[in-house]
Amino acid sequence: MKRRTLDLIFSCGGVALAAVLLVMGVVLTSNANFAKDYVSDQLRAQKITFKSAAELTADERKSECVVRYAGQLLSTGKQAECYANEFIGLHVASTANGKTYAELGEVQTDLRARIAAAQKADDPGLADLQKQLQDVTASRETLFKGETLRGLLLTSYGFSVFGAKGDQVATVAYAGAGLLVVLSAAGFLHALLTPRSRRFPTHERFATNSERREPTAAGAR
Fold first, then answer.
1. How confident is the model at residue 177 (pLDDT cuts 50, 70, 90)?
2. 8 Å CB contact between 135 and 117
3. Strand stretches in the chain, DSSP E
4. What is the pLDDT of residue 64?
């Protein structure tokens, strides 16, 4: 095969692959921009604002990101992660001594059974049990709202991460396409500078050259 033909084949292949990477980069960039804009629009619509620095409690000040975003409108995935884990998470954990929504459901069931038994036995502690049930129910509703909002914010954060990853892959695709374009251009240039008659060395030519050298070596011995 002629060396010039081989250069052209590889160069054309490089251009084709660069085009594929370029298209992939454009698609990934479009998806990344969509994810970024969508997350920002949805979060801004909620109009959630971090407490100002002066309003933060001692426990809230222990979170570096809560202090950093103090007073800001929640509008990015990283802010959503901070608000969900460091702000809502802190208050959810302190609402019912660390118990979760599901765990309080078991407490509710137990209290209802005890209240039913107390009503049948005309137990004087009935009022106290009813008060406990009311407190647990209120705490469970608070936990439900907090954990639901926390889950939604973390979902937004996860969506934003996919967008950021897509942006990174798009950058790699653009870099790869650029490198292939440079290499392909070098290949085309080499093809233009290579004489048409020049052939790429083949196995048969190497074998012929070796056979030619063998008698010379034997004569020297």
1. very high
2. no
3. none
4. 92
31 in Cβ contact with 163 (< 8 Å): yes
- Using DSSP's 3-state secondary structure scheme, residue 13 falls into helix
In the predicted model, what is the mean pLDDT of the chain? 84
β-strand partners of 73: 49
Report d(CA 188, CA 216) in Å as an integer.
40
Residues in Cβ contact with 169 at an 8 Å cutoff, skipping those fewer than 6 apart: 28
- Span 180-189, pLDDT tens digits: 899 888 888 8
71: left (phi over 0), alpha (psi -120 to 50) or beta: left
CB neighbours of 101 closer than 8 A, spacing ≥ 6?
140, 143, 144, 147
Question: Residue 188's closest CA among 63, 21, 13, 1?
Answer: 13
Predicted TM-score (pTM) above 0.90: no
Structure tokens at 63: 């979170």
16 vs 21, 30, 133, 217, CA distance in Å?
9, 21, 70, 48
Q: How far is CA 51 from CA 43, 85, 143, in A?
A: 16, 15, 20
Location of structure tokens 């454009």:
26
Question: How far apart are alpha carbons 36 and 25 in whole angstroms?
Answer: 16
Nearest-angstrom CA–CA distance, 157 and 165: 12
